[in-house]
Amino acid sequence: xxxxxxxxxxxxxxxxxxxxxxxxxxxxxxxxxxxxxxxxxxxxxxxxxxxxxxxxxxxxxxxxxxxxxxxxxxxxxxxxxxxxxxxxxxxxxxxxxxxxxxxxxxxxxxxxxxxxxxxxxxxxxxxxxxxxxxxxxxxxxxxxxxxxxxxxxxxxxxxxxxxxxxxxxxxxxxxxxxxxxxxxxxxxxxxxxxxxxxxxxxxxxxxxxxxxxxxxxxxxxxxxxxxxxxxxxxxxxxxxxxxxxxxxxxxxxxxxxxxxxxxxxxxxxxxxx
Length: 273
Prior knowledge:
By secondary structure, the protein is α/β, with parallel strands linked by helices. The protein has a single domain, classed as TIM Barrel (Alpha-Beta Barrel), CATH 3.20.20.70. It has helices at residues 29-46, 72-86, 97-104, 120-128, 146-154, 181-186, 195-198, 216-226, 255-271, and strands at 18-22, 50-53, 90-93, 109-112, 132-136, 161-165, 168-169, 175-176, 191-194, 200-201, 210-211, 230-236, 250-251. Strands 1-2-3-4-5-6-9-12 form an eight-stranded parallel barrel, surrounded by six helices. Keywords: Cytoplasm, Transferase. InterPro entries: Aldolase_TIM (IPR013785), DAHP1/KDSA (IPR006218), KDO8P_synthase (IPR006269). It comes from Zeaxanthinibacter enoshimensis.
């Protein structure tokens, strides 16, 4: 699909990767606007097409007492305010078919969580909104099997679809990205690398997901070198106190150096025959 079809997206002629980035979950208006302002400034300077990411609710938590959101409509309205304030598109996760039409009133891209990507009713509902649909590759699925998820979107009359690789489960508490899958999945749709969740360490005994944020640079550079179309990175100005996924989010003040280096690397990759 053409990035330029997404409302308000910028820098589509820069030949850069595109970026999906923001906090794991919308915790409030001030934090969302603060993160968006910083990343919008960076991506404008570096000419990176940018979509602000924030989950309006978190249905996939390890424990019943984990943070799940501030209220669906309240969070979705904050996503709309981010879009209106900074003139950027937005993306959020949906978890059940009824979420699709509701979220589509507020955001530009609907994201299907990895553990739900085989749910036909959910995918069809997302496709029927006419929004771009970002399919997270299931941790339990091969790259080749994602063709069928893409087909569900396209056969529902929507050609606007991406695939995001977020690693494959290796044992009980680790994720591994097999970069051989990138060119395979690019046969079906543009491919994004989810740097954040591919570095998760799920299923910890404490019930709180761990992560390896010190490897964010390594993973992101490898993705660009492998030819991904986009990069997904969750970021927060205070990861240690974030209400969701803080263990593997990038500190907001480290985003500038990472993106600067990735743009340089992308330029080199583009120059290769």
